[in-house]
């Protein structure tokens, strides 16, 4: 039996189907989870996808963090369940305090949509083992509130512990401190990033690259070999 990876849909999510397709292309079984679900239906991992949950009211991810599905997700993530937060999902993970720091509006105050060059900084998380540290990849980016911020102590700790997973190369698209594009928790089972790997899994659509597919093959290998 293949691994089952849940994809949570909130009101305002818009990349859930793309994420399910990426999971299927990697060889796993996508499982649709609804924001009102009170359990995770025995999935092996969860992806919080991109979009504008609850219209980004208050702050991006601030309301979604209190959806019923988040209670079991937070509990199980702390116990080791692999969780990937993409864009709005990353924002939700910071609001839920599964990842440190916060996401603010882009420093240029505009929505941005572009192919973004990244450097893989940590290839040892549950979601990045099919990359190599230092590898340069291109992943589509689209956000309005993508500026990662944290206090200096937290930033220094992330750097010292190797928890910066991805860093922007070339243009910093949103003013994120230290060019941080994605981070992980201490255990490496929870990863959040602003770019959208689910849009880079097939050569004929999206960016025309498959640089995002290793996110999904990485977690599949980890779950199958567990």
UniProtKB/TrEMBL annotation:
GO terms, molecular function: glutaminase activity; phosphoribosylformylglycinamidine synthase activity
Catalytic activity: L-glutamine + H2O = L-glutamate + NH4(+); N(2)-formyl-N(1)-(5-phospho-beta-D-ribosyl)glycinamide + L-glutamine + ATP + H2O = 2-formamido-N(1)-(5-O-phospho-beta-D-ribosyl)acetamidine + L-glutamate + ADP + phosphate + H(+)
Cell compartment(s), UniProt: Cytoplasm
Active site: 87, 196, 198
Family matches, as PROSITE patterns: GATASE_TYPE_1 (PS51273)
Keywords carried by this UniProt record: ATP-binding, Cytoplasm, Glutamine amidotransferase, Hydrolase, Ligase, Nucleotide-binding, Purine biosynthesis
Short name of any one Pfam family annotated for the protein: GATase_5
UniProt pathway annotation: Purine metabolism; IMP biosynthesis via de novo pathway; 5-amino-1-(5-phospho-D-ribosyl)imidazole from N(2)-formyl-N(1)-(5-phospho-D-ribosyl)glycinamide: step 1/2
Transmembrane stretches, start-end: none
UniProt keyword annotation of Nucleotide-binding present: yes
Subunit structure: Part of the FGAM synthase complex composed of 1 PurL, 1 PurQ and 2 PurS subunits.
Role noted for this protein: Part of the phosphoribosylformylglycinamidine synthase complex involved in the purines biosynthetic pathway. Catalyzes the ATP-dependent conversion of formylglycinamide ribonucleotide (FGAR) and glutamine to yield formylglycinamidine ribonucleotide (FGAM) and glutamate. The FGAM synthase complex is composed of three subunits. PurQ produces an ammonia molecule by converting glutamine to glutamate. PurL transfers the ammonia molecule to FGAR to form FGAM in an ATP-dependent manner.
Alphabetical list of HAMAP family matching this protein: PurQ
Name the record gives this protein: Phosphoribosylformylglycinamidine synthase subunit PurQ
Natural source organism: Streptomyces galilaeus
Biological classification of the source: Bacteria, Bacillati, Actinomycetota, Actinomycetes, Kitasatosporales
Underlying gene: purQ
